[in-house]
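Same chain as my last thread, 66 residues:
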Amino acid sequence: MNLDWSLFFMALGLAFLLEGLPYFILAERMPGILLTLASRPPRALRILGLTSIILGVLLVALGRSF
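reply #2:
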């Protein structure tokens, strides 16, 4: 398998962009949101993480199908 480095760096940049948007747009509310997330039990965070992983895999598969 040959890795397309330009595609990899574009995907990484897009991930950073999407991760940074909530902190930029909701800067005043983020501390409360993070405290709410910190108060969740580990099981709820794992379910949230697994849901995000599945959604990400589905989006990558959808993108590759075009």
